[in-house]
Specification:
Number of strands of chain A: 2
Structural class of chain B: mainly alpha
Number of strands of chain B: 0
Order of helices and strands of chain B: HHH
Largest sheet of chain A: 2 strands, parallel
Largest interface: A-B, 33 and 30 residues
Helix content of chain B: over 70%
Shape of chain A: globular
Helix content of chain A: over 70%
Strand content of chain B: under 5%
Number of helices of chain B: 3
Distance between the termini of chain A: 42 Å
Strand order of the largest sheet of chain A: 1-2
Oligomer: heterodimer
Structural class of chain A: mainly alpha
């Protein structure tokens, strides 16, 4: 059965959106004169645009769909992915790290590693990052095609072709600028598409207090205290007390420190947006401007999940089962699409559905623009063909875009035929990502750390993550791809808890080894060469003359204070 | 800045707003009873989108006016 019936007006809205993103590409085409314009937007974009794009690039559909699903499964604790797992890292990036990224004139994150450490560290990071971005965009495509198949009975091949071609065309035309502009458009679409959904859903359940009451039986029927779905911190004392199966230590250090800082501060996909800003001040404000809406996004993406589970508990069975089989349980990933159908009439349904489509495409586009830059600058220009003309690299960037999308589509088909391959890959990516922040932290704040130290630390952190994974298992899982393939020595209450501790193990092994090996090896870069790359050797950006609302430290403090207040309200 | 994004955002949301408002006026009220709790969400939210779109257009046009007077 088709789950969504789109009327003519809904399709009209969808096509208007497609028309707009393609015409923005067409308008921007004439501004793309060289490789710098294509890959870095000529460092000419104002802070509010890069800020919203910074947020949107991360707001792929997996996030929108997944966070609502988590909201239903775990309740308001899901907000930790925002208030603990994003905001502090975004503030840290803005205040402490952006001056090095932007000030060093590095064109990518791997290039910063080359300037700070050496060629091999950059090579390692560039290769793993390039592979990860095309695979993530492939996974995104696959999920998109599956969802459209379920909702509208669109053909799998057609969904892949539509998403691939649209993203391809606008990136080819307008490069990074176009991706960024469309991300901003998507941000507003998501806000305006989902806000009325949340309002109607809240009205339907009778407001927050009534929702809280309706969530009590959800918690007790799952064997938790009555408030487990509506308190974010209260039940974190022990992993057995909350539906996520994590304790506060794992959450704060594993998610809040290692994973969150590793993603927000080192992932070129998001950092690239800030690097495109038109000044140092704008680059530093980018993550902060993103942090304000990010802080409030739980209301848009988690709240629908809470309402959905309360409605199901109350006897409104609007969520389908996984693969239509009641034995497999409810398909929480369908929360957002089914809420759209439940609450939106034709017209608004078009806007909501378009917002969902937009989040898929911008998630893919973010990966593709990051991939073509890293491929062209860090791999092609460094190892394959150095010293060519700017026009040649621009041409290469366009080729990389086409090839990147073709590989992504290939990955999507791979995922469609062997679902496990994607689980496997995502697992390997988590090994690679976990130690990254230790390398950057030492690189930026300790001038004694060396290239050999960083390289070995990264490798060993990755191996450490793999070993920890082999030694640990979540309750209820069988040894194998879920862990425990060496020996299930540590057991966790949930896969999430296992994942948080794995990240900590990887980070710690990378951190310790980088220090030990750095001390054992000779410094290869002098203080002069490290100027602008290491905190103690860099002049602090002058902000005293800016108005308070343009000062990163002031904005950062405001963001952190507001986040603290939100945590206390939903304690 | 090369091309003011606020023009694009403004135009798109104005267009969407107009479509929703128009559809909200002509559509059968029965479609709202089953979905949006009887509220004509197309009409009301259409106005919100329209207002936002026009505000963005206003910002873009006034910025352009300033840029013209300045050089």
């Amino acid at each position: 059965m088709q789950l969504i019936h789109l009327g003519k007006i809904d399709y009209a809205i969808l096509f208007i959106y497609f028309g707009f993103i393609l015409s923005i590409g067409w308008i921007l085409k004439r501004y793309v004169k060289g490789a710098t314009d294509f890959f870095l937007s000529g460092r000419s974009i104002p802070a509010w645009v890069t800020g919203l794009a910074f947020l949107s690039a991360n707001l792929g559909a997996q996030e929108v769909v997944g966070m609502a699903a988590s909201g239903a499964k775990y309740g308001i604790m899901t907000s930790h992915f925002y208030w603990v797992g994003a905001i502090p890292a975004m503030v840290f990036l803005a205040i402490f790290m952006m001056p090095f990224y932007y000030g060093s004139k590095a064109r990518s994150v791997p290039e910063y590693l080359k300037m700070r450490f050496d060629e091999k560290t950059r090579g390692l990071n560039a290769c793993t990052f390039a592979v990860m971005t095309v695979f993530s965009s492939g996974i995104s495509m696959h999920v998109f095609a599956l969802l459209l198949g379920k909702l509208l009975h669109w053909d799998y091949n057609m969904s892949i072709a539509v998403s691939g071609v649209i993203v391809l065309v606008y990136i080819l035309l307008g490069g990074l600028t176009c991706a960024i502009y469309n991300e901003v458009l998507q941000f507003f679409l998501i806000v305006f598409g989902f806000a009325p959904l949340v309002m109607l859903a809240m009205k339907h359940v009778g407001g927050w207090d009534s929702l809280k009451q309706q969530l009590e039986p959800v918690a007790t029927s799952n064997g938790f205290a009555a408030g487990a779905w509506t308190h974010s911190w209260q039940y974190l004392g022990s992993p057995t007390e909350n539906p996520m199966g994590v304790g506060w230590f794992g959450l704060v250090f594993g998610l809040g420190f290692v994973l969150s800082f590793g993603y927000w501060c080192t992932d070129f996909l998001v950092v690239q947006r800030a690097m495109a800003a038109n000044s140092m001040s704008a680059a530093r404000r980018t993550p902060l401007i993103a942090a304000f809406p990010k802080m409030l996004f739980p209301a848009l993406v988690i709240l629908p999940g809470l309402v959905a589970i309360a409605m199901v508990q109350g006897g409104d069975h609007f969520l389908p089962y996984v693969n239509g089989d009641p034995k497999l349980g409810l398909d929480y990933n369908m929360t957002i699409p089914m809420m759209l159908v439940r609450f939106f009439p034709s017209g608004m349904l078009g806007v909501g559905f378009t917002a969902l489509m937009a989040s898929f495409m911008s998630g893919m586009a973010g990966n593709v623009t990051a991939f073509n830059t890293v491929w062209t600058y860090d791999l092609y220009q460094s190892y394959v063909a150095p010293g060519r003309t700017d026009a040649h690299y621009l041409w290469m960037g366009r080729c990389a875009t086409v090839v990147g999308i073709i590989i992504s589509a290939g990955c999507a088909y791979l995922a469609a035929s062997f679902g496990n391959i994607m689980d496997m890959l995502q697992l390997v990516f988590s090994f690679v990502n976990a130690p990254l922040f230790a390398t950057f932290l030492l690189g930026m704040f300790w001038r004694r750390s060396t290239g050999h130290g960083a390289f070995c630390g990264l490798l060993c952190g990755t191996i450490g993550a793999a070993i920890f994974h082999g030694l640990s298992l979540a309750n209820g899982d069988l040894p194998g791809i879920k862990g425990g393939w060496i020996d299930p020595y540590f057991t966790f209450n949930s896969e999430m808890g296992q994942n948080f501790y794995m990240a900590m193990a990887a980070w710690t092994s990378c951190f310790v080894l980088t220090i030990v090996i750095s001390l054992a090896t000779k410094r290869t870069k002098t203080d002069d060469e490290l100027r602008g790359l290491v905190y103690s050797l860099t002049k602090k950006p002058e902000t005293a003359h800016d108005p308070w609302y343009e000062q990163p430290v002031t904005l950062g403090i405001i963001v952190l204070a507001c986040t603290l207040v939100l945590n206390i309200i939903f304690w | 800045m090369q091309f003011d994004l606020r023009f694009a955002i403004g135009t798109m949301f104005t267009l969407l707003g107009v479509i929703l408002v128009a559809y909200g006026i002509v559509s059968d009220s029965a479609i709202y009873a089953n979905t949006s709790l009887g509220i004509n969400i197309n009409l009301y939210w259409g106005f919100v989108l329209l207002a936002f779109g026009l505000f963005m257009l206003y910002l873009a046009i006034s910025a352009r006016g300033k840029a013209k007077r300045k050089p």
